[in-house]
Amino acid sequence: MMEKYITAYKNLSEEKQYWLKIASIILFSFILYRAIFLYLHRQSSLLEQKIENEKDLIVWVQGKSSIIREVQKNKLNKIKKRYTIADIETGIKNFNLDPYVIVLRQNEDNNIEVSLQNVPFNLFYGWLLELNQKTNFDVDTLSIKNRGKGLTDIILNINLMGS
Q1: 112, exposed or middle or buried, with CB in 10 Å at 0-12, 13-18, 19+?
Q2: What is the pLDDT of residues 98-110, one digit of tens each?
Q3: How far apart are CA 71 and CA 138, in angstroms?
Q4: Where are the beta strands (DSSP E) in 4-135?
Q5: Could you tell me if residue 152 is left (phi over 0), alpha (psi between -120 and 50 degrees) or otherwise beta?
């Protein structure tokens, strides 16, 4: 099959062979140029899109950075502030839980034991929610004994340093 084209090429005059070589070089160059150009253009478009996405991300992060700093600041302040048994006593008085308190003590591990007897559960739960909002603590142990009619006996051991 190739022999047919080679024979036809050799039968052409030298001038036609010359122009055919030039045309072949130009066509090959054009195809090569298009292939490289399209590839580079495609890569350039992808990189431009990536840059735009990164710029959008930077603008978004800058917009959220004040919120992130505020959250980090609040979290650090909450963790750094040490709460003591006096803070717990104040909360107990604010919720009128003091008539129900049997034991309130703090040990050397910064754990506080609170024992309440015949306390309305809803009152205890409200105090616990407020304590959770103001402090960073872990409940080590919680024992609740139902006395009926919404009254409970509660023994709560908390670590005010939290996790």
Answers
A1: buried
A2: 888 888 888 777 7
A3: 20
A4: 101-106, 111-120
A5: beta
